[in-house]
Design brief:
The structure is a homodimer. Chain A has 18 helices and 18 strands. Chain A is an alpha/beta fold. In chain A, the strands form three sheets. Chain A has a ten-stranded mixed beta sheet with strand order 5-6-4-1-7-8-9-12-11-10, sandwiched between helices. A six-stranded parallel beta sheet of chain A has the order 15-14-13-16-17-18, sandwiched between helices. In chain A, β11 and β12 form a beta hairpin. In chain A, α10 crosses α13. Chain A is globular, with a radius of gyration of 23 Å.
């Protein structure tokens, strides 16, 4: 007995943000990435609702102008509705910079120097109150909107920003079907205990309010299971990937996300991308090209990547002048001291290597720090080696975008600690991101790889990415929820 | 059908070290701690053998003077034999400073700043070769000595220095009964993967050569089970705490070690300790005393401990001048840069706090950096609060020694991340070692605690420590091995 469902997505950042155009009219600008594509597609089909925090004055203005604060996106070419939450700036700062990015991101990516940091104090507890408040606000609006939908509401709650929402929503609307998806890694139990108890327990119990918890990789799912196991009254069954809590069952599932191949390929054929491709090609001359595309993010391991390249050039000097390393880095979280410091370290390390190994007609590293999606799309077509060596990464979409657009049978050097490794590892040259020697060897292996082998791997990568379109990622979650609903119904009637 | 067993212990450092006395005669000096007591007791009963690396010229001289290189300890008042391995200094350096303390200790204690360190390179791989060579040497001597024993040899291999020995010994003497015990924490699977693959897999498979793996806490045992689970061909059963590998079963067991109460109490009554106790008492006047006793070790969390005390004094200024913090710190691993830097940070932080909060007649922190076991034993008698706040700790014996010798119903402030917390936590004031605010509150709670409550807790702690004498720790391991033997025999005959 199927009934109609209404899909409601919740995420910190919305699928579009509104900015005034040249005429002062509010225009919706779409975010990039497979997540938005996948979820927009699902909402489109279900004529669903997306709930997000307002990011700009344009967002707030669009919300004010909409009846009941709900923006009908049909006016912007998509059949779903959008509701922005207007959160006071200082509360948002505590929730977003203080906890989400300043604490939870660090925990899940193992980014602390535990001998010295973190040191939690009163300001962190105040920021935690903000985090709780914003999550509560989301839960209230989700419950309220759920009651207004034509069908039974099905919630897709996104990421670590909203980890408390499932439990809060469950309390407000106990019969809800709730999925929560984590796009980050999940710290194992020992590391997660770095968090103050109120955060550690709050986070885990918050997520356990869901019917289904989704992760990009089995490793993250297992880390969550093991962490939950330490909470009183929680039974985590590792073999069946299932958790019993408060008389309910929580499914723990792995759904690796992928990229939107069609949109990506379209963007690569646009005039801007073509022009940039010609520029990069001219500049590289007949050198081989190693590429990295990353946010300037602590977890991306940019400095060790340069050091591995340096070691490679010192070990095999015959490659000097015949290869170039193009690093396209977009600024990220520059509000946080640690990110500014890391950005400077990346630049300084590239400069040092260029100074020590460069020659009048050749510079080993070409580093660009700016938001430059078009440049990245252009460069993807041209690399011989794509270096994706994060310390740890929930998934990593660069490892998928590159192979999809590359035209030179380029080789993917991929960290074993990226969620993407589970899917793509067998066609990549695997590296331990802490092992400079292994990464240097991987660059040499990749550059020396015979054409046939490169073709085989490049085809394999692009086939794997295409085989897992973003719709499947959402579809899998909706199926999980449907299964949860059936199990719940049969438990109630038996 | 029991047969006679011969116990053979292997550890990096021996139970005694030989130094020439005033007459130039070699004298055996015993190491301190429950481990030596427990194992010496077991060997004494079984007239067993202890195999260790020679630490001094005295050790080498004693070995040369002994027939077959095996020292009969009856000449030194103990009925066991001792064999020292003479390892070349540079090999020992790679094995001990390079890998054991420079890599494995950091991994198991989560001490890296993963954004920047470690960066593995060729020198680490050379050090790994040394580590393999020393482990191989141990395994060969153990196999050789095992063949010479009157009974069936039973091996008790100690700690992370000798993680490869079980597998190597199993290859040389497949029927051996081998236990390995880890005195450190064990990193969870995500963190352990920081190690280069050759080390990561080598370490896990090395330990899996044992019949029984022992840990101080359930958390470390589970981390090992989860890490092993990732290896091809290994089946880890978390619920039964058992691992299947190479057609064998490996038991994973928890045996928390304790301290030797009698020896400790004796040392507290010696004249030197009495004198020091009087000195400390005079100095404290009518102030309350917070004590910490630690190696100057990255994992001990000394800086955050001072900062928590500072926060407490700022929050509750009425305590200024009425309390003093005595920090007895013994230098440790000063060959490693990271340890020297940390020692300086500890001193600088204490100085800063004394400068900012001190008054002409009162200094908040009294810090001593020296090897001073007698001073520690004396101070244990006198504390009102014992601060044991490691970032992470395999067990932590200070948390046991203190309550056993304290005479003031002192309160134990204990990190939830110490292995000892599993046994003692319910009588301690628990703290998250990363949470300055919680640690400051814990100090206040401990100092304000009513006498009756302090008495109840102090009695509880001392009862728990006494209830678990070191003999039981060894006994449990020997029982595990006997169980493994029976299971193996019945598997062979069935």
């Amino acid at each position: 007995m199927n009934e109609r469902v209404s899909v409601i997505v919740a995420s910190n950042r919305g699928p579009v943000t509104f900015e005034p155009d040249a005429n002062g009219e509010l225009e919706a600008r779409r975010g990039a990435g497979g997540l938005v594509t996948a979820l927009t597609g699902a909402l489109h089909e279900a004529e669903g609702l997306w709930v997000s925090a307002a990011m700009s004055d344009g967002d707030r203005a669009a919300a004010r102008a909409a009846p009941g604060g709900v923006i009908d996106m049909r006016a912007h070419g998509a059949a779903y509705r959008l509701r922005f939450l207007d959160i006071p700036a200082d509360t948002y700062d505590g929730y977003y910079n203080g906890i989400s990015n300043g604490v939870l991101w660090f925990a899940h990516h193992y980014l602390w120097d535990a001998v010295r940091a973190p040191s939690f104090g009163e300001s962190d507890l105040r920021a935690w109150d903000d985090y709780v408040a914003v999550n509560q606000r989301f839960a209230e609006v989700l419950a309220e909107e759920g009651g207004r939908q034509p069908g039974r509401p099905v919630y897709l709650v996104q990421d670590y920003h909203l980890a408390l929402v499932p439990r809060m929503l469950r309390e407000l609307a106990p019969e809800s079907l709730i999925a929560h998806f984590s796009h980050t890694p999940i710290a194992g139990p020992t590391y997660l205990r770095i968090l103050p108890t109120v955060m550690h327990d709050g986070l885990l119990r918050g997520m356990l309010g869901a019917d289904v918890l989704g992760f990009h990789s089995q490793t993250w799912a297992e880390n969550f299971l093991m962490s939950s196991r330490s909470l009183p009254g929680v039974r985590a069954d590792l073999a069946r990937s299932r958790i019993g809590v408060d008389g309910r069952q929580v499914l723990v599932r792995t759904h690796p996300i992928s990229v939107d191949a069609r949109a990506l390929r379209e963007s690569a054929t646009e005039p801007g991308a073509r022009r940039r491709r010609r520029e990069i090609n001219r500049r590289r001359g007949n050198q081989r090209l190693i590429l990295r595309v990353d946010r300037l993010e602590l977890s991306k391991n940019i400095v060790r990547g340069f050091q591995a390249y340096e070691l490679f050039l010192r070990r095999v000097p015959s490659w000097r002048g015949r290869v170039s390393f193009l690093a396209l880095l977009s600024p990220s979280r520059m509000e946080l001291d640690a990110y500014r410091a890391y950005a400077e370290e990346c630049l300084a390390e590239a400069e040092r290597i260029n100074r020590e190994l460069g020659e009048p007609a050749w510079s080993p590293i070409d580093i660009h720090v700016q938001d430059d999606y078009v440049g990245a799309v252009a460069a993807y077509g041209l690399y011989d080696v794509l270096m994706v060596n994060p310390v740890i990464d929930g998934m990593n979409l660069v490892a998928m975008e590159g192979p999809l657009l590359n035209r030179r049978h380029g080789v993917l050097v991929l960290s074993r600690n990226a969620g993407a490794f589970g899917r793509l590892g067998r066609y990549a040259v695997p590296v331990n991101p802490f092992d400079i020697g292994e990464m240097a060897t991987a660059l040499e292996t990749a550059l020396d790889m015979p054409l046939g082998e490169r073709q085989r791997r490049a085809r394999g990568l692009s086939r794997l990415v295409l085989a897992n379109p973003p719709e499947r990622w959402v579809g899998g979650q909706l199926e999980d929820l449907e299964r949860a609903r059936r199990r719940r119904t049969s438990a109630q009637t038996s």
